[in-house]
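User: Hello! I'm new to structural biology and keep hearing that structure can be predicted from sequence alone. Could you demonstrate with DUF3179 domain-containing protein? Please show me the input and the output so I can see what each looks like.

Assistant: Of course. The first part below is the input, the amino acid sequence of DUF3179 domain-containing protein. The second part is the output, the predicted structure written as tokens.
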Amino acid sequence: MRWNSAKIFWIGIILLVVPGLIHAYLLMPFPGSQDLNAITVCYYLEKVIMPLRLIGMLFIVWYLFKFYAKNTFKQKIVKAAVFLLCIGSFYITDYMYKAETMFKETANAVFANGLKNRVPLNYLVVGVVNNGVAKAYPLIYLGYHHKLQDNVGNKPVLVTYCTMCRTGRVYSPVINGVRQNFRLVGARHYNAIIEDESTKTWWYQATGNAAVGKLKGQQLTELPYEQLTLAAWLQKHPETLILQPDRLYTTDYADLKNYDRVQAIDRDSTIKNKDSLFRKSWVIGVIINGKAKAYDWRHMYAKRLLNDELNKSPLLIGIEKDSLSYHAWNTSVNGKALHFKLDNNGMLTDEETASVWDWDGLCVTGTQKGQRLAKIQAYQEYWHSWKHFHPGTTFWKGDESLEQTASIYPPF
């Protein structure tokens, strides 16, 4: 086979640049990239990028030694410029748009108690309790870092948050008996993808499902958490330790100002009907025995308290007066389902016995005093993310439950 000298050069350039550009495009939220079912392509492409680049360099070196000198001055300038642009593209693909360099995990996680805390009390936090130890992770910090690998009560935890889909999740980082370190790979379907160190499996942050790799089909063990304001968390856990801001990332935290409290739809003055359902509308998501349901946040806050049933389980959804702290409980007590309303003091009161319960699910006065409602794990999430990862979900909007369909909602 007789090789054309120009083909040798351009094949080398393509191998140097194109695989990395495709990989960066698919793993970052560029227009159209996140709608493709391409996680397997991304996974294996990442493994062959460096070998392809080495082959590309061999082609370039071959060309330089055998053909470059025969080029005209103009041809030499063009090819040299193209090669320099190739080198520059590595900055884009391997740094500028590489998730683990854009969103760095803090290397110095500092915690403080309530007396020494510098985090505003109205910040939202992800709260975790284990073995009597409570820790709070502010969303604004966690949202930039995407993940924090920590210990709570001598138990390893992987605390995660993805701002593209508004998903907080806490997992055990122990896989098959071995504690793993995780790196942030990028995103698919607007959700963060993380990789464990040992098996190099890729996991969806929103579900803990292994999407591709050696452990494909397995699932990270989810650990319970709550999302509420720091003030509400301190009221329940006054001895909590609170993650403090890392000064290295002050500017990055500032980019998320008001993320934890203002819906995107509220910042768009062109939208007249704020009750419309958009991609980034907030919902409260609940899953009971495999059955998923989402509750429209705006309508839920107007109602404040909702008695419902999901998969034959009595369910209570509530949002506190601060408009940010939310809860879900199973209302079965001693085999009987209770129904709740708010009293004049904003406390929970069951209709069956008129007992009063606090926002931690504990009965404080009445015949049920001392009883505690069982917590149900609930999530605050963008509607587009919830319906993607839970395609069979039902949806509640203002006292009516609707089966989720493939309807297309206005992009936002």
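User: So the tokens describe the shape?

Assistant: Right, they're a compact way of writing down the 3D structure. Reading them back into a model, for example: Residues 111-254 form one domain.
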